[in-house]
Amino acid sequence: MRITEQAKQQCRARILEKASELFCARGFDQTTTRDIALAAGVAAGTMFNYFPSKETMAMTMVSDALAEGEEEFQGRTGGELAEDLFGFIASGLRRLRPLRPFLGPVLERSLSPFPRKNVCPVGEAARQRHLGFMQQILARHGFSSAPDYVATTIYWSLYLGVLAFWTSDLSPNQEASQALVDYSVRTFVHIISGSAGADGGEHVL
Amino acid sequence: MSCNAALTSYPESRERLLQLLPRDEDAAARERLAELVETACSNRPPTSSLSRLWILGSLQAKVACAYLAWWLKSRWADEDEKERTKNETHLKAALELLGTMGYLRGAVMKVGQMLTLPEMVPEQYVRLLSSLSFEAPPMHYAMVREVFFDEFGREPEEMFASFEKKAFAAASLGQVHRARLHTGEQVAVKIQYPGIARTIQADLKNLRLLLQPMRMGDDWPNLLDKLAEVESVLLAETDYLKEAELAQAVRSHFEPGDGIVVPRVYTECSSLRVLTTEYLQGVHIDEFLASDPSQELRDRFTHLMTMATIRLLYRTHCIMADPNPGNYIFMPDGRLGVIDFGCARMYTDEEWRMQCEAEAAAFRQDEKEMERIIVEASLYESAQEMGAERVELVGRVISWQLEPWLSEGLFDFGDRDFFLRGMEAMRQATKKGYLRGMPLHIWTTRFVLGARAVVYRLKGRCHFKEIYRQESAPEVRSPSLSANTGGSGSPSPRPLGEGQG
Predict the structure, then answer these.
(1) How many CB pairs under 8 A join A and B?
(2) Which of B4, B166, B194 is nearest residue A175 as measured by Cβ atoms?
(3) Which of A72, A175, A193, A195 has the most B C-beta neighbours within 10 Å, making it the best mutation to test the interface with B?
(4) Sign of CA pseudo-dihedral B149, B153, B154, B160
(5) HSE (CB half, 13 Å, CA atoms) of B412?
(6) What SS3 class is residue B279?
(7) CB–CB of B261/B254 below 8 Å?
(8) pLDDT digits (tens, 9 = 90+) for A95-128
C-alpha cells in the first residue's frame, strides 16, 4: 500500500520533533540516528529516506526557523537600512531560540565559511536564501550596484560571528547578543555606505 | 533626560573639546593637555565615518573626556616632571580608550561625570551640566520591539493604543517614547538598552585599570571604594522595577495640594527593562527660562524644588543622586513635576546619624563638633592627621553647603557671590586633591551642586529655613501622609532646595 503524501508529511514532522527533543535534552553529538528512529517509531531505513543525516535534520529545523523569521519580518519592513537588517536578523534569532541549546556544533559544521568536504545541501540552501534576502533588503535601500561579493562576504562574516556569540550567550534573553547585532549591523551599514548618513541610524533625537 | 546635541562635525567637535579644558591653569600645562587631546582625537582619520560615529559621535562624550582629563590632571598638580610625563602618557591612553569604547562610552561618561562633577562647576559650566546626561546607544524601533518581546511577549503596538516609534528623549541607560494606554492616558515609556548592566561592569573594570597610575597615592583605597559605590548605584539604576517601587513610594509622600507631581507608574506595562509612567505636560528649565518668567514664578518653583527635596530627604532618607535638570518639569499650571527616580541613594543609619549630627552642630555653631564631623567624614582619625589646611578647606565646602540652613528669611539662590564662593571652595579642594571622603558624599555633593546650579539659573529665592522646619519636623518625619505642610498654595515664595551634610 502506498502511503499518502499527508502521512509522509506527518512522519517527517514526527522525526523532526523527536530529533529536536533529543538534541535539546542530550546535545547534538550525543544523540544517534538510532535514538531518533526509536523515539519517532520508524525504522532506521525509513528515516534515512527522509533525512540522510543528523546534520540534515538539524539544518532542516534551522532552515524552517529562519524561513519563519523571514516571513515574519516581511510584515515589518520599512525602516532605515540598519533597522531593517536588525529586524531581519532578530526575527530569525527569535525563531531559532528553541533550538539554541544544541545549535553550536550544528552551525559550526554546516555554516562554516571554510572549505569542507561535505556541504550539507539544506544548510547551503538556507545560507543562500538568507543572503538573497539580505541582498533584497540592500537593494530596497539602493545598494544594488555595490560589488555584491564584498558586501555579502562581510555580512556573512558578521552574521556568523553573531551566531557564534549567540549560541553561547548566557545573558538573560541573550540581550548581549541583541547589542552585538545592533553594533554589527551599524558597522556593516557604515562599511557599505561609506558615510555616517541617515541610514546609519544615528541617535533618533 | 536630555535632548541630544546634534552631531557636530569632526573639527568643530575637537575645538569644543579643547575649549572645555580649564583656562585659568598655567598656560604651559594647558597647552600640553590640549596637545594630548589633539593627538588622541586625530589618531583616527577624520575621513572614516566609523570613527566619526563611534569616537566623536556626541558632544557629551567629548565633554566627559575633557572633564576626566581635567580631573586626572588635577591629580598631578605637584608631581615632578618625570611623573608628569608618565601620567600624561597614561592620560593619552585613557582618552584613546574612552574614545574607542564606542558603545561602552556611555557608562564611562557617566562615571566621569560623577567623579568629576565637583571639578567642573565654574560658572561657565553650569549650563553644560544640563546637556551632560548619560546617553545609551539609540535604539530603532526594530530593537525596541525585541525588548518588548522579551519583556512582555508582545509588541509595543499591541500593548498600547498608540506608540510613537521615535523616542522623544534620551534617558539614563535608554530612551523614552510617548504612548497612549488603551484606557486613554498619555504615558512616557522608558526603555533600557539591552545588556547595559554588563556594559557598566565592564567599563568600571576598564576605568579601574586606567586609573592604576594613581594607585600609589594615599587616597587610592578611597577611590576604589568610590568606584565600587558608583558601580552599585549604577547597577541599581538598571532595575526599573526597583525604580518603579521607589517612584510609587515617593509619590505617596505628596498630595495634590502640594503643587508637586510625581508621575504615576503603570506597573502592568512595566518590567525590569521597561518603565511606563504618566506623561507630564510641561517644559524643561531652558524653555522655562526662555519664556522670561516673573520673579514670583521663579520663586515658586524654587520653593517647590526645595520642598520636594527636603521632604524626601527627611521622610525617606533618600537623595536623588542624578541632578539632571531634565528631571524637573515646569508644568503650565505652576506645578512642579519631578521625574526619574533611577539614580537614588538611601542613607545608611550610620550616614543618617552623621547627617543629623552635622546639622545639629551647625545650628549650635559648635565649631569643635563641626571639626570632629569634618574629620570623620574625610576618613581621618584626628584633625592633626588630616592637617589644618585640609580641615579648613573641606570645612569651608561643608559650611557653604549648609549655609541655607543657617539663614533666616528669604534665601537667594540666584546670588552670584554665594554660588561662586561655593564653586571656588570646591575647586580649591579639588585642585589640592582633597577628595577623600565617604562614598555617600559623591552623591550628596553631586546633588547639592546639581540642584544649586538649577536654582542659580532660575535666580530663585525661597524661605529655606521655614521649609526645612516644616518638612523635617519630627512629626513630619514619620512616613504618615497626614503631616502635610499645606504651604504650597500660598503665593509667597518659600523654601528651596537641596540637602546634604
Answers:
(1) 89
(2) B194
(3) A175
(4) negative
(5) 7
(6) coil
(7) yes
(8) 999 999 999 989 988 888 887 777 889 999 999 9
| φ, ψ for residue B246, nearest 5 deg | -65, -40
Contact across the interface for A176 and B195, Cβ inside 8 Å = yes
With CA atoms as reference, the chain A residue closest to B3 would be A205
Q: Residue B119 — very low, low, confident or very high, per pLDDT cuts 50/70/90? A: very low
| Cα distance between residue B313 and residue B297, in whole Å | 24
- Model confidence band, residue B112 (pLDDT cutoffs 50, 70, 90): very low
Element containing residue A80 per DSSP (H, E): none
CA dist list (Å): A40 to A8, A25, A44, A48: 13, 15, 10, 13
Q: Is the pLDDT of residue B76 over 50?
A: no
Q: Alpha-carbon distance B84 to B334, whole Å?
A: 53
Under the banding of pLDDT at 50, 70 and 90, the label for residue B121 is: very low
Contact A178 B146 (CB under 8 A): yes
Do the chains contact at B50 and A178, CB–CB below 8 Å?
no
Give the helix/strand (H/E) hosting B426: helix B416-431
Query: With 0-12 CB in 10 A as exposed, 13-18 as middle and 19+ as buried, what is A45?
Result: exposed
Residues of B whose CB is below 8 A from A176: 194-195, 198
Q: Which helix H or strand E contains B357, and what residues bound it? A: helix B349-364
Q: How far apart are CA B282 and CA A186, in angstroms?
A: 35
pLDDT band at B237 (very low <50, low <70, confident <90, very high): confident
Catalytic residue among B203, B322, B340, B412: B322
- Does the annotation count B417 as an active-site position? no
Find all residues with CB under 8 Å of B159, minimum gap 6, and list them.
B148, B152, B269
Q: Do the Cβ atoms of B314 and B483 come closer than 8 Å?
A: no
What is the C-alpha separation between B151 and B162, in angstroms, rounded?
Answer: 18
* 3-state DSSP assignment of residue A167: helix
In contact, B299 and B412? CB cutoff 8 Å: no
* Chain B residues near residue A94 by CB distance under 8 angstroms: 146, 149
CA distance A54 to A102: 12
Q: Are B444 and B85 in contact (CB under 8 A)?
A: no
The torsion angles phi and psi of B143, rounded to 5 degrees, stand at -75, -40
> Least CB-CB distance to B142: which of A79, A176, A196?
A79
Residues of A in contact with B102 (CB under 8 A): 183
Q: What is the 3-state secondary structure (H, E, C) of B295-319?
A: HHHHHHHHHHHHHHHHHHHHHHCEE
8 A C-beta contact, residue B276 and residue B188: yes
Q: Which residues of A touch B (CB under 8 A)?
A: 76, 79-80, 82-84, 86-87, 90, 94, 171, 173, 175-176, 178-179, 182-183, 186-187, 190-191, 193-196, 200-205
Q: Is B439 helix (H, G, I), strand (E, B) or coil?
A: coil
pTM: 0.74
Q: Cell numbers for B12, please give them.
A: 568643530
Chain-chain contact of A203 with B58 (C-beta, under 8 angstroms) = yes
Closest Cα in chain A to B50: A190
Rounded to the nearest 5 percent, the helix, strand and coil shares of chain B are 60, 10, 35
DSSP codes, B209-273: HHTGGGTTSTTHHHHHHHHHHHHHHHHHHT-HHHHHHHHHHHHTT--GGGSEE-PPB-GGG--SS
Alpha-carbon span B138 to A160, nearest angstrom = 24
B53 closest CB neighbour out of A83, A175, A190 = A190
Instruction: Using the structure block, give the residue that is written with the C-alpha cell 539609540.
Output: B138
Per the rule left: phi > 0, alpha: psi between -120 and 50, beta: everything else, A8 is alpha
